[in-house]
Specification:
By secondary structure, this protein is mainly β. About 0% of the residues lie in helices and about 45% in strands. A hairpin with a 2-residue loop joins β2 and β3.
């Protein structure tokens, strides 16, 4: 019998509840409550709402139905496993104007809020309080700990200015790094040296410009990553097509090269190094090292030439370069398979090594030990302090999965973030909500998947940045084309918007709905599963529906389980 095809009327709805209430934090600690859980009953016409607000509850729901003139009793039991800690949405905010606004970087603020950085083409509209100065502008938005806007600043010249990276400064301000095509105009105080230049802007704690520097040569120079240096300055990383000209002191080795520039606390150049081979070398991520140097991560298709000491394994490879505090190369490693492998993010590990993350289309070949699951997969590679591979994991589904950001977790693992178009397949446990979704994957210290969450609406949603929060959660930042749908609770303001999502620790309540006709507390072979029933977590209103096999799963945010 297919229960979803049965027309039934709910005559009586009774909860019998025995509960031992456990309040769990993210690491499974517990305390016993001072009073028992009170019984709660919700009524709805043809939907069965099952409230469950504890971490471990056994509930028996007895429904008396009149079905085809026969009274039948339905029984369901479920167990809420407090140890199955995962992360679910606590809050979200869609921020933008009437055009397109793309968020690329998030950094924590000292007061518990966050600084969002990207670029905007919107005029005054929606959340945007200033008109565009040129084509696209740097758009910096300060939000509080709950995602509400505190202040914002639109910074740019009369052409395109694209903000890609933000780091905090010791005085409570921030340094913005990206690239600019603008000449003197608007907020821009220097002309372009070539086509696109590195553009570094220092702002104070309220978003006001303190100083700026336009750095580049006669060609295109794209700044994608900025990090603080121990002496109060900053190290800039991107790639350059320029030969000696403007601020550039070395010719290009090939088409494009890694270009690393050290500046002091006022933005003046201290040193620089052009690093590359005879092909294309593009630097996307910089991480400081314990000895005062830096590890550079990006991708390369160069063979042995210039600074490159290894041939390409395939198309593009991960290319990791360690430099000292003055920019000189210490070691390097070319890591890849027979196809394209794009390194986007690098983060230090507690043992002095590094975890690399990006996208790979390679099968087993070269350094790659697993076949691709789809067109592109997350490819996570752990290297030691000298660049040798320790372990790796290829993570993905049947379609495209692109990893853009990695951050450390308190338990020694890592949280990966990017975009996924895969449905359930390979490592993917949830279908896509739209064309691309935020895909967050937690791995342990040796690369095994602990949990994952697919977050998105009915269109494209791209996750570019993850930062940990003081309460053990994570703030996700990217951009979204989606209106209200799936996990998205607000419509788009324009074409695409900044989309900020806060994840908090939760417990997964899992269970199964079935028709226990003979009331023996066991599902006999003749007893059907019940699908399409709405199950609500009473304290927050979070809900799900039972699946075709009667199963369901819903998250309960841990910090909301208070007495």
């Amino acid at each position: 019998m297919r229960w979803r095809d049965v027309l039934f009327k709910l005559y009586n709805f009774v909860f019998y509840c025995k509960a031992k209430l456990l309040s769990h934090n993210a690491f499974g600690s517990s305390q016993t409550p001072s009073k028992p859980l009170e019984k709660t009953t919700n009524h709805s016409n043809n939907l069965l709402d099952l409230p469950c607000i504890t971490s471990k509850i056994l509930i028996r729901v007895i429904m008396k139905l009149k079905l085809l003139s026969t009274f039948i009793f339905l029984l369901t039991s479920f167990f809420c496993n407090a140890q199955n800690t995962q992360y679910d949405i606590q809050w979200q905010n869609t921020i933008g104007g009437n055009n397109w606004d793309q968020l690329y970087s998030i950094t924590p603020a000292p007061d518990g809020g966050y600084i969002l950085g990207g670029y905007s083409h919107s005029n005054i509209s929606g959340d945007k309080t200033e008109n565009s100065i040129g084509g696209v502008d740097y758009w910096v938005v300060k939000i509080d700990s709950l995602g509400a806007i505190v202040w914002q600043n639109t910074i740019g010249g009369n052409n395109d200015d694209r903000l890609c990276s933000i780091t905090s400064s010791p005085d409570g301000g921030y340094v913005l790094g990206g690239y600019s095509y603008s000449n003197i105009s608007g907020d821009k105080t220097e002309n372009s040296n070539g086509v696109a230049d590195y553009w570094v802007v220092k702002i104070d704690s309220l978003g006001n410009i303190v100083w700026q520097n336009t750095i580049g040569g006669g060609g295109d120079d794209y700044l994608y990553s900025i990090t603080s240096s121990p002496d109060g300055g900053y190290v800039l990383g991107g790639w350059s097509y320029s030969n000696i000209s403007g601020d550039k002191t070395e010719n290009s080795n090939g088409s494009s090269d890694y270009w690393v520039v050290k500046i002091d606390n006022l933005g003046a150049i201290v040193w620089q190094n052009t690093i590359g081979g005879n092909g294309e070398d593009q630097l996307y991520s910089i991480a400081p090292t314990p000895d005062g140097g830096y590890v550079l991560g990006g991708w390369s298709n160069s063979n042995i030439s210039g600074d490159k000491t290894e041939n390409s394994n395939g198309g593009y490879d991960y290319w990791v370069v360690k430099i000292d505090s003055l920019g000189a190369i210490v070691w390097q490693n070319t890591i890849g398979g027979s196809n394209n492998d794009y390194l986007n993010s690098i983060t230090p590990t507690p043992d002095g090594g590094y975890v690399l993350g990006g996208g790979s289309s390679s099968n087993i070949s070269g350094d790659k030990t697993e076949n691709s699951n789809g067109t592109y997969d997350y490819w996570v590679v752990k290297i030691d302090s000298l660049g040798a591979i320790v372990w790796q994991n290829t993570i993905g589904g049947i379609d495209g999965d692109w990893l853009y950001s990695i951050t450390s977790s308190p338990d020694g693992g890592y949280v990966l973030g990017g975009g996924s178009s895969s449905n359930i397949s390979g490592d993917k446990t949830e279908n896509s909500n739209g064309t691309y979704d935020y895909w967050v994957v937690k791995i342990d210290s040796i690369g095994n998947i602990i949990w994952q969450n697919t977050i998105g609406g009915s269109a494209q949603d791209w996750l570019n940045s993850i930062t940990p929060t003081p309460d053990g959660g994570y703030v996700l930042g990217g951009y979204s084309y989606s209106n209200i749908s799936g996990d998205k609770t607000e419509n788009s303001n324009g074409i695409l918007d900044y989309w900020v999502v806060k994840l908090s620790p939760s417990n997964r309540i899992t269970g199964k709905l079935l028709a226990d006709v003979n009331q023996n507390n066991v599902q006999d072979s003749s007893e059907a599963n019940i699908s399409g029933i709405k199950i609500t977590e009473a304290s927050t209103g979070r809900y799900t529906f039972s699946q075709a096999d009667g199963s369901y799963s819903i998250g309960v945010l841990i910090q909301l389980l208070t007495l």
